[in-house]
Amino acid sequence: MKIVVAIGGSILLKEYDSKKFKKYSEILKKLTEKHKLFVVVGGGKPARDYINIVRDLGAGEAQCDDIGIEITRINAKLLLSSLGSAAYQKVPHNFQEALEFSTSGKIIVMGGTEPAHSTDAVSAILAEYINADKLINLTSVDGMYTKDPNKYDDAELISEITATELLEFLSGKDIKAGTYEFFDTTAVQMIKRSSLETVITNGYEPENLIKAINGEKVGTKVISE
């Protein structure tokens, strides 16, 4: 299968060490024996920290986005270092480059592309662009909940949701550079229009990536209807 994997920056850099990079590298190398992989890496706390600084300096949101994009690309380079020869050793700056680099047969790793597009959105657009079979979004929670699980003990995990229902849930959210929302509306719109099979699950457990690709019940499955 052709698979796009989105890994939140907070997953890889929670402890500011190399452990998660190494673990994901092992798993991705193994998966590439059977699948064609494209990985989109988020910015995490480093991006948010830098965005806060540049915002305090008076920069507009597009400039804040641009700073965040640079951090995602640094994170992508860190993962490339861990993957070594298994990956194409250049970070694509757009979807056409990602497609061109993929002719190498190696794992492609990229960060953000342009202002107003989160890495959630980038991963969904990339999946449509390359006609991927599946999108796996690895985030900091187990999946989609009825309410924020970090704040409410009675939050319940939703095992399956339609793209339309998810768009309704996200409607009215205030999205700014570096802010955290469960998922990006642009990403959901892309999932809906391309009928893209998508799984959102907890990236702190790297083995969840294998489970999601194998079709095991893990996290939240987003269906296109």
Automatic annotation (TrEMBL):
Pfam families: AA_kinase. Pathway: Pyrimidine metabolism; CTP biosynthesis via de novo pathway; UDP from UMP (UMPK route): step 1/1. GO terms for molecular function: ATP binding; UMP kinase activity. It is found in: Cytoplasm. The keyword Transcription does not apply. It is an enzyme of class 2 (transferase). UMP binds at residues 43, 65, 113-119. InterPro entries: AceGlu_kinase-like_sf, Asp/Glu/Uridylate_kinase, Uridylate_kinase, Uridylate_kinase_arch/spir. The keyword Metal-binding does not apply. Residues 1-202 form the Aspartate/glutamate/uridylate kinase domain. One of its GO terms (biological process) is UDP biosynthetic process. Its EC number is 2.7.4.22. ATP binds at residues 9-10, 44, 48, 139, 145, 148. Keywords: ATP-binding, Cytoplasm, Kinase, Nucleotide-binding, Pyrimidine biosynthesis, Transferase. It catalyses: UMP + ATP = UDP + ADP. Catalyzes the reversible phosphorylation of UMP to UDP. Belongs to the UMP kinase family. Homohexamer. This is Uridylate kinase. It comes from Methanobrevibacter oralis.
